[in-house]
Amino acid sequence: MLAVLPELKRDVDAGRMDADTYVLLFDRLQLALGRLQRFGSQVATDETGALVVLPVEDPSKVDALRRDRGLIPLKEYVHVFGASEVRFSQACKGLSLAGAQIRP
Questions:
Q1: pLDDT tens-digit profile of 47-75?
Q2: Per the CB 3.0–4.6 Å rule, which of 20, 28, 32, 89 could disulfide with 52?
Q3: How far apart are CA 94 and CA 104, in angstroms?
Q4: 43 strand-pairing partners
Q5: Claim: this prediction has a pTM higher than 0.85
Q6: Where in the sequence is the domain holding 75, given as residue range(s)?
Protein backbone atom coordinates (compact mmCIF):
# COMPACT_ATOMS: atom_id res chain seq x y z
CA MET A 1 0.00 0.00 0.00
CA LEU A 2 2.84 2.38 0.82
CA ALA A 3 4.48 1.77 -2.53
CA VAL A 4 1.40 2.31 -4.68
CA LEU A 5 -0.02 5.39 -2.91
CA PRO A 6 2.35 7.94 -4.52
CA GLU A 7 1.66 6.43 -7.96
CA LEU A 8 -2.09 6.74 -7.43
CA LYS A 9 -1.68 10.36 -6.33
CA ARG A 10 0.30 11.18 -9.48
CA ASP A 11 -2.42 9.64 -11.64
CA VAL A 12 -5.17 11.53 -9.78
CA ASP A 13 -3.25 14.83 -9.94
CA ALA A 14 -2.70 14.31 -13.68
CA GLY A 15 -6.39 13.60 -14.24
CA ARG A 16 -5.80 10.02 -15.35
CA MET A 17 -8.09 8.58 -12.68
CA ASP A 18 -10.75 9.63 -10.19
CA ALA A 19 -9.67 10.38 -6.64
CA ASP A 20 -11.90 7.88 -4.85
CA THR A 21 -9.42 4.98 -5.03
CA TYR A 22 -6.59 7.20 -3.80
CA VAL A 23 -8.68 8.62 -0.95
CA LEU A 24 -9.82 5.18 0.23
CA LEU A 25 -6.28 3.82 0.21
CA PHE A 26 -4.81 6.95 1.82
CA ASP A 27 -7.28 6.90 4.72
CA ARG A 28 -7.04 3.16 5.25
CA LEU A 29 -3.25 3.31 5.27
CA GLN A 30 -3.25 6.23 7.71
CA LEU A 31 -5.40 4.25 10.15
CA ALA A 32 -3.30 1.11 9.70
CA LEU A 33 -0.22 3.15 10.60
CA GLY A 34 -1.92 4.47 13.74
CA ARG A 35 -2.57 7.91 12.29
CA LEU A 36 -5.75 9.88 11.67
CA GLN A 37 -7.50 9.68 8.34
CA ARG A 38 -7.92 12.83 6.28
CA PHE A 39 -11.01 12.36 4.12
CA GLY A 40 -13.35 10.40 6.40
CA SER A 41 -13.68 7.48 4.01
CA GLN A 42 -13.24 4.78 6.65
CA VAL A 43 -16.30 4.02 8.74
CA ALA A 44 -17.31 1.36 11.24
CA THR A 45 -20.06 0.68 13.74
CA ASP A 46 -19.77 1.54 17.40
CA GLU A 47 -20.86 -0.60 20.35
CA THR A 48 -24.48 0.47 19.82
CA GLY A 49 -24.42 -0.46 16.14
CA ALA A 50 -24.42 3.15 14.94
CA LEU A 51 -22.25 4.06 12.00
CA VAL A 52 -19.27 6.24 12.91
CA VAL A 53 -16.53 7.87 10.88
CA LEU A 54 -13.22 6.63 12.23
CA PRO A 55 -10.90 9.33 13.64
CA VAL A 56 -10.00 12.17 11.27
CA GLU A 57 -7.31 14.85 11.36
CA ASP A 58 -9.72 17.80 11.36
CA PRO A 59 -13.49 17.19 11.20
CA SER A 60 -14.11 20.84 10.33
CA LYS A 61 -12.08 20.51 7.12
CA VAL A 62 -13.25 17.09 5.91
CA ASP A 63 -15.89 18.35 3.48
CA ALA A 64 -13.52 20.92 1.96
CA LEU A 65 -10.85 18.25 1.48
CA ARG A 66 -13.43 15.88 -0.02
CA ARG A 67 -14.70 18.63 -2.35
CA ASP A 68 -11.12 19.35 -3.48
CA ARG A 69 -10.86 15.71 -4.57
CA GLY A 70 -14.25 15.70 -6.30
CA LEU A 71 -15.99 13.63 -3.65
CA ILE A 72 -19.48 13.98 -2.22
CA PRO A 73 -19.90 15.62 1.20
CA LEU A 74 -19.43 13.37 4.21
CA LYS A 75 -23.12 13.52 5.14
CA GLU A 76 -24.03 12.09 1.72
CA TYR A 77 -21.24 9.49 1.98
CA VAL A 78 -22.43 8.11 5.34
CA HIS A 79 -26.01 8.15 4.03
CA VAL A 80 -24.91 5.54 1.46
CA PHE A 81 -24.23 3.25 4.44
CA GLY A 82 -27.61 4.00 6.00
CA ALA A 83 -26.61 6.70 8.49
CA SER A 84 -28.79 9.78 8.79
CA GLU A 85 -26.04 11.94 10.31
CA VAL A 86 -22.26 12.16 10.56
CA ARG A 87 -20.90 10.84 13.85
CA PHE A 88 -17.16 10.97 14.44
CA SER A 89 -15.44 8.31 16.52
CA GLN A 90 -12.56 9.13 18.81
CA ALA A 91 -11.60 5.46 19.16
CA CYS A 92 -9.89 3.24 16.66
CA LYS A 93 -8.84 0.08 18.46
CA GLY A 94 -7.82 -3.02 16.56
CA LEU A 95 -8.51 -1.80 13.06
CA SER A 96 -8.88 -4.65 10.63
CA LEU A 97 -7.66 -3.84 7.14
CA ALA A 98 -10.01 -6.48 5.76
CA GLY A 99 -13.05 -4.41 6.61
CA ALA A 100 -12.11 -1.41 8.70
CA GLN A 101 -13.93 -2.80 11.70
CA ILE A 102 -13.38 -1.79 15.29
CA ARG A 103 -12.71 -4.86 17.37
CA PRO A 104 -13.66 -4.99 21.06
A1: 888 999 999 999 999 999 999 999 999 99
A2: 89
A3: 8
A4: 53
A5: no
A6: 5-80
